[in-house]
Amino acid sequence: MKLSIIIPVFNEEQTVRVLVERVWAVDLGGVEREVIVVDDASADASPAVLRELEAEGLCVVHRHPVNQGKGAAIRTGVSRVTGDMVIIQDADLEYDPGEYPRVMAPLLENRADVVYGSRFLERDQDRLYDRWHAFGNGVLTWVSNRFTGLGLSDMETCYKLFRASVIKAVDIEEPRFGFEPEITAKVAKLGVRVVEVPVSYDGRTYSAGKKIGWRDALWALRCIVKYSLRRD
């Protein structure tokens, strides 16, 4: 088995090296790994850092000439994966790669085809910096569940792991943060097995570089309705 790790990057010069090194430090229990970084036209020193990491053999880098958004970066990454499993990993250190074995377990045990790493299962809400962000996530997840019937606790989580055949069967259309409700709605329509496992979370503040905002939440609501009701 092989795990493909897709890391979208936009202006993460302070964290991307630490993140990639943490990814390689995880014991995957014999599972191979590949690290695919998609630089979404970063304007800071991220491209230079990524060139160094690629030269060290720690990742393969693909660069967008213009900024397109997280969803577009994931779409690029999915088109290049060669693994049996695919996980999304943000570069900002909010999520710990040490959780990979926990997220992979249901798939490796053939209990799931898609695994969501939930920040709210058996976890203290105080781990989130912004309670309004947690509240908004809860609302979006509740609305998503009403349309998809999945019963998730954390639809907006970064940690989504897929069988490669599942994620490759989905046409990713949303270029920005609408990816999360879009992929959830489309996975639900596929009728595959979706489970959640608890993961840790060290949320950063907007002053520290958090990029998602209230406009993205409104767009997410639109995406929930659009992709849940649309007949493909």
From TrEMBL:
Q: What class of enzyme is it?
A: transferase
Q: Organism source for this protein?
A: Mucisphaera calidilacus
Top-level taxonomic group: Bacteria
UniProt keyword Glycosyltransferase, yes or no: yes
| Keyword set includes Transmembrane helix | no
Q: What is this protein called?
A: Undecaprenyl-phosphate 4-deoxy-4-formamido-L-arabinose transferase
Limits of the Glycosyltransferase 2-like domain: 4-168
- EC numbers for this chain: 2.4.2.53
GO MF terms, alphabetically ordered: undecaprenyl-phosphate 4-deoxy-4-formamido-L-arabinose transferase activity
* UniProt KW keywords: Glycosyltransferase, Transferase
List the InterPro entries. Glyco_trans_2-like, Glycosyltransferase_2, Nucleotide-diphossugar_trans
